[in-house]
Amino acid sequence: MNVFEQRLTAIRRKFDDWEIDGLLITSPINRRWLSGFTGSNGQLLITKDKALLATDFRYWEQAAAESPAFELFKHRRTDEDNAAFFAAAGVTVVGIEAQHITLADQTRLDKIKDVFWDPLMETAEPLRKIKSPAEIEAIRAAATITDQAMAQVNTIARPGMSERELAWQLEKLMRESGADGMAFDVIVASGPNAALPHHHPGSRQLRAGDSLIVDMGAKLDGYHSDMTRTFYLGSEPDELFWSVYNLVQDAQTAVLDHIKPGMNGKKVDALARDVIAAAGHGDYFGHGLGHGLGLAIHEDPFLSTRTEAEIMAPGMTITIEPGIYLPGWGGVRIEDLILITEDGFEYLSHCPKEPVIRVP
Ligand code: ZN
Ligand code: ZN
After folding, report:
1. How is domain 130-357 classified at the CATH fold level?
2. Closest Cα to residue 301, out of 143, 148, 130?
3. What residues does the ion ligand 2 have nearby, CB within 5 Å?
4. Cα separation of 102 and 108, whole Å?
């Protein structure tokens, strides 16, 4: 059985729990994960013994090549074809992806006779948490490109350069090293802007004495990477920078010293949160500790105060990214990407953590 046949088997095993005899997949990421199809338009209809992929003329050849485990349904985007698609599968109760179906989709589905639509809050998402060896290799390759660009920050960032300019230089480096694109817009947050966890780089010019957060990731073959480093621009950081920086680093170390399979997401989050709270900065670590990453930049499992039900397991690729953000001053975030293994974890991020960029 190839990986797509295995995934089909895994998702069919859930049909009894969901009380469905068919599953309609419309989310592009779940569609790709289940079928291998990378086109921009298409839907899957999976039954106990059929697997159909409907797509339009532009993709018929590509779909046949990418998704041999699926039978191609040549869809002309008409109501007749839509009815024929469901008739071909012979389904009566079909699970649909509640988080991806739009009202327009629902209106089209409601025209189909004799099928009951059952909205599901998640379909393939829980299965996607555990990565296959090929997925791990793709993520590793994306992380390597990110590492190499991040390692250049200390030679590129200079006072007078704008945040936007630094972001562009880093994007260029990642594209030149083979990235298909960015996992998300590069975040460069300098000085007081570093107090905003997802600041969008603007025209502010870097200056000596700034803390500087760079958060970025390359995208490769559909897979993402994600990494943050915090820098200090100047000769010698003041006491406040070091105290906040060291605290964030200690919080991350507390996680990496203890994380292992079987631990739940809330417990992992608490390993870092307790360190930061004990130092009096608990209110300034306002986001979760980390997230899963794969075909989506943010996906299950999430590590936060609410994810007691998420259990760490080998094959998960997750970020560990504690941060402290002090309004008016700036912030520090350190983010590494790791792979959970049988006996602990393996780093997928390797860029050193050397915050001081010495400039006059
Ligand atoms: Zn990030
Ligand atoms: Zn992240």
Report:
1. Creatine Amidinohydrolase (3.90.230)
2. 130
3. 226, 319
4. 10
Query: What is the distance in angstroms between the CA of the first residue and the CA of the last residue of the chain?
Result: 61
Interval between CA 72 and ligand 2 midpoint (Å): 36
Distance from Cα 95 to the centre of ligand 1, integer Å:
33
Given a contact cutoff of 8 angstroms between Cβ atoms, the answer to whether 139 and 317 are in contact is yes
C-alpha of residue 319 to centroid of ligand 2, in Å: 6
Q: Which amino acid is at 60?
A: W
Distance 335 CA to ligand 2 centre (A): 7
DSSP conformational letter for 161: -
Ligand 2 mean position, distance from CA 39 (Å): 26
Write down the pTM of the prediction: 0.94
What digits encode the pLDDT tens for the residues 20-64? 999 999 999 999 999 999 999 999 999 999 999 999 999 999 999
CATH topology of domain 3-128: Creatine Amidinohydrolase; Chain A, domain 1 (3.40.350)
